[in-house]
Amino acid sequence: MRNIKNYEKIAKVMGQFDFVQTRSLMEHLDWHWNLGTDDVLYGVPEVSDLVDMAHSLLLRSLNSGSASSGGFEATYDKGMLSLKFVTEETVDSDSYDYEELGTVSSVGENHEV
Q1: What per-residue confidence (pLDDT) applies to 105?
Q2: Whether the predicted model's global pTM rises above the 0.70 cut
Q3: CA–CA separation, 47 vs 64, rounded Å?
Q4: Cβ atoms of 10 and 58 closer than 8 Å
Q5: Is the CB of residue 69 less than 8 Å from the CB of residue 33?
Q6: Which of 18-22, 26-30, 92-96, 103-107 has the lowest mean pLDDT?
Q7: DSSP 3-state of 103
Q8: What is the 3-state secondary structure (H, E, C) of 29-95?
Q9: Helix axes 19-29, 47-64, angle to 10 degrees
Q10: Which of 41, 56, 53 is nearest to 32 (CA)?
Q11: Residue 58 or residue 87, greater confidence
């Protein structure tokens, strides 16, 4: 499912997402990732780490429909690509109605190129 149009969608979504704001929230929440470097094993990731993770998840979502890790959630459905950073989600197990709480995203909605 990878083609030029999909790469354009990824570029548009990533260009509209506020990675600096996301990192600031992670610092405030003391949200650490396993960085796996020689100097620092755990810590708040740098903006470049967030960008790399988001790009990877968006690519994966093109094939699988969704991918998530480290608070990010990428979805691809009916030609629409979206990226969210979710801090909390509540699911009513008796229904399929999802209520998301604390979602941080500068995208705000799905974008189609």
Answers
A1: 46
A2: yes
A3: 25
A4: yes
A5: no
A6: 103-107
A7: strand
A8: HCCCEECCCCCCCEECCCHHHHHHHHHHHHHHHHHHCEEEECCEEEEEECCEEEEEEEEEEEECCCC
A9: 110
A10: 41
A11: 58
The tokens for 109 are 């909605």
- Which tokens is 19 given? 């990675």
What is the Cα–Cα distance from 22 to 60, expressed in whole angstroms? 21
The pLDDT, as a whole number, for residue 95 is 55
d(CA 31, CA 49): 14
> What confidence tens digit (pLDDT) does each residue in 10-65 have?
999 999 999 999 999 999 999 999 877 666 678 899 999 999 999 999 999 999 99
Domain boundaries, the chain: 4-104
Indicate if the pLDDT at residue 2 is higher than 90: no
**CA separation for the pair 87, 89 (Å, rounded):** 7
Residue keyed to tokens 């755990």: 42
